[in-house]
Specification:
Length: 481
């Protein structure tokens, strides 16, 4: 039987302005985790959440994580864990979000103050953190308040995990999650996990995300003379690191985006017919991509090819060069040492260690071919694994029914080209299915200037999160654990 949600939905609409005021108060706190000087603001944001959750009747703890690695004087912001309900007869759902945000300054190009929520005539709510991830985090709080107002019992036990370092690598979180998933830990009883920290593929149709690419990030360092040189004096007499680096980087990937490192493409799992069938119905067009790019400089010609290139095939991107002259104007310098940076987005069934081996072997081989007297060092900076879940799992089927109820359409089943490492951590630590259930849309400009969350996505998204809890409470566990 479908859950009776009318009273809950009515209260969400009635409380909409209260929910927007809650987001306005959260956006006003500049909880930038990357700025040491603003660490007190990150902590203030954690205190804001604690107070709000306690007011709603949750059991809340602010768990310290100790000093930040490499900065013993600077405590990490606490992980906020909360519980609402402890009925043994109900399923227990664990939800995750983060309360820290990316840096933002008005002079970066914002049209408004990034830490003052501003709403235009089209209902676009601008402010740093509005969509990433304060809006979705507060969505769960809104769910509790609307249920209370409706006199409707929450159908599950809800566990919440909100962290304050996601935008700075989630330092300290992995060990915390693993510890709390053990016997007697805060997350031990979780039957499934839901994360709302990603976005719709477009602007009109909701989606459920069942896969993420991983990311291996590399540095190629080439060093020659002891100091920077004048090209008029030393050009033609000293072998130049920048010339070597450009030639090495040029061997990594071709114009069509195909990785040129032997052995990498061969690791990729073949596409099955069942997987191919998922792409046709997805609401996406090449015009959507052209609009996002601001040009038609695409590599693929069809929607299906584009989405596969973005989600399920590996890509290699060259990101920059450290040590080279990059300011406006002309400077006739030969840099003594340059560091090229590139990454490979990994997919099933690529093993990170084997990718590293192939990359190191290729870079060293190509450098050796140059016959240069300069010195080379290639290294891995960091790596995060890929993730794929079953979209047929009961956690996903319940979410699909909730989308149908709130928006009147079946959701797109999507992957993401980017990485959310905590997804893997929760899956491995809990041993349960993890669902990515986004609130925001593709035009929200997370991490960029003029970040926003549409009022419709925030309010209807609150309805969706609540409806999901009702459907997941009763969905038959025929698929998956």
């Amino acid at each position: 039987m479908a859950p009776q949600l009318d009273n809950y939905f009515k209260q969400v609409d009635t409380l909409a302005e209260t929910f927007i005021d809650r987001l306005r108060a959260a956006v006003a706190i500049p909880s930038i985790s990357a700025d040491d000087a603003l660490r007190p603001e990150v902590v203030r944001m954690s205190s804001f959440l604690v107070k709000e959750l306690e007011t709603l009747g949750c059991t809340v703890e602010a768990r310290p994580l100790g000093p930040q690695p490499g900065k013993p004087h600077l405590p990490l912001p606490p992980v906020i864990v909360a519980r609402y309900g402890s009925d043994k007869a109900k399923r227990t759902i664990l939800v995750y979000g983060h309360y820290d945000v990316q840096p933002a300054l008005k002079e970066d190009g914002w049209n408004t103050d990034p830490f003052t929520l501003s709403i235009d005539e089209q209902g676009r709510m601008y402010g740093r953190g509005s969509t990433d991830d304060k809006g979705p985090v507060l969505g769960w709080l809104n769910v509790l308040q609307a249920h209370k107002a409706a006199g409707t019992e929450l159908p599950v036990n809800l566990l919440m995990c909100f962290e304050g370092m996601e935008e700075y690598g989630s330092e300290g979180l992995d060990d915390f999650i693993k510890q709390e998933c053990q016997k007697g830990g805060f997350f031990e009883e979780a039957d499934a996990v839901c994360i709302s920290d990603n976005y719709w593929l477009g602007t009109q149709k909701p989606c459920l995300t069942y896969g993420l690419r991983g990311c291996n990030y590399y540095s190629v360092e080439i060093e020659g003379p002891a100091q920077d040189l004048h090209s008029g004096v030393f050009g033609g007499t000293a072998q130049e690191p920048m010339t070597d680096l450009v030639r090495v980087l040029g061997t990594l990937v071709n114009t069509d985006g195909k990785i040129q490192i032997p052995g990498v493409n061969e690791m990729v799992a073949p596409v099955t017919e069942e997987e191919k069938a998922l792409y046709g119905a997805i609401s996406y067009t090449m015009d959507d991509l052209h609009e996002s790019l601001g040009s038609q400089t695409t590599m693929q010609d069809s929607k299906e090819q584009t989405l596969m290139a973005r989600w399920r095939y590996p890509t290699l991107s060259v990101h920059g060069v450290e040590g080279a002259f990059s300011a406006p104007g002309a400077k006739t310098v030969i840099p003594a040492k340059v560091i090229g940076k590139f990454s490979i987005r990994t997919v099933p069934d690529m093993e990170s260690d084997k990718v590293d081996e192939a990359v190191f072997k290729h870079v060293r081989s190509e450098f050796q071919k140059l016959g240069s007297k300069n010195k080379l060092n290639v290294s891995l900076q960091h790596a995060g694994p890929w993730w794929v879940a079953s979209p047929k799992h009961w956690n996903f089927s319940a979410a699909g029914k909730a989308v149908q109820k709130v928006f009147g359409v079946a959701p797109d089943l999507t992957r993401e080209g980017g990485s959310i490492p905590v997804t893997i951590t929760f899956e491995q630590a809990t041993g349960k299915n993890v669902l990515l259930l986004p609130m925001g849309s593709s035009t929200d400009a997370a991490h960029s200037v003029n970040e926003k969350l549409d009022r419709r996505n925030y309010i209807e998204g609150t309805k969706l999160l609540g409806a999901y809890l009702h459907y997941v409470a009763e969905e038959p566990m025929e698929n998956g654990r």
